[in-house]
Amino acid sequence: MIPIRAAVPTAEEARALLVGIRRATDVDPDAVAAGLRGGEPDPALLDLVATPFASVADVDERLAGTESYLRERGDRRAVFLTVYSRMTATVRDAIDDGAFLDPEWTASYLVAFAERYRRALVAFERRAFEALPRPWLIAFAAAARGETLVAQDALLGINAHIAYDLTYTLGDVGIDPDRDAKREDHDRINAVLARLVQIAQDALVETYAAAEIDGIDRLLDPLDDRLALLGLKGTREFAWRNAVLRADLPAWVGEPYVDWRTETVATGAAAVVLSLDFEVGGDETDASARLRDWETGADTVAAFREAIRRRT
């Protein structure tokens, strides 16, 4: 049994939880779901993701195929997959290169992580909104409406997957035995995530530079701080602490407590991302509106993918 003080939020977590409690009320999931009902599922998309992932190679191949399918149809859900499919390929290469202490556990981690995304995508496509975690409902709904910037679509997907899914992925694969070794491999995967987020930031800056918004690099820097209420590094630590709490506390205490922590922070962060309004310095110009106008006449999804491809 862990000391009860381990269940007490850190100062950073407490701040994130307070913001999450306040901002999560900005989003009404029932209203979001109601606005999305009526469309028909895409059979071809469901064929790509209907069955569970079987291996790292399967994840790599089908995520890339799904990203291509969505992008070719102008579906904004492709934006997150552009980043995520690169992350998967990078981790796969690292596993093959012997970069992890426990490559079998790391491979299971990668597959379980992707499986959380796959299940969320299938639930959304089938309009099974009641089975969809709130952060993913917000992210997918924003992409479907097409009212957000590509930068926000990327952030919403990254937030849902890391701030929400990562906690449960660690529970799926287990952090015991050899917890210290698994923590080290978790941190090595985190390093890959950090590099990919930096690549995504650089790609967004390159993509939006065509809009000639002065200071676009400052608008998106640091993307890490816009990722979630805890920042990228803090969110990864948050997920590990959640996994420890679920593993070491009695299930009747640990599971609902961690569920509340995870959903509050991830949903609050999604609300923050939705409300982002970029302004350059003290200029009254609404950079978000200018960028949105530019996106209307440009294939920013394709431009973002190409910028990512050049960096990986």
Uncertain spans: none
Strand content: under 5%
Question: How many alpha or pi helices?
Answer: 15
Task: Estimate the global geometry from the Cα principal axes.
Answer: globular
Radius of gyration: 19 Å
Q: Helix coverage percent of residues? A: over 70%
- Tell me the series of helices and strands, N- to C-terminal: HHHHHHHHHHHHHHH
**Coarse structural class:** mainly alpha
Biggest β-sheet description: none
In angstroms, what separates the terminal alpha carbons? 44 Å
What's the total number of strands? 0
Arithmetic mean pLDDT:
87
List the defining traits of the structure above.
312 residues, mainly alpha
Structure overview:
The structure is a single chain. With 312 residues, this protein is mostly helical. It has a domain at 40-222 and 277-311. Helices cover 72% and strands 0% of the residues. The protein is built from 15 helices and no strands. It has helices spanning 11-24, 29-34, 43-49, 56-72, 78-96, 103-125, 134-145, 150-173, 179-209, 216-219, 223-227, 231-248, 251-274, 287-296, 300-311. Helix 8 (150-173) packs antiparallel against helix 13 and helix 12 (231-248) packs antiparallel against helix 13. The chain is globular and about 55 Å long. The termini are far apart. The model has no long low-confidence stretch (mean pLDDT 87).
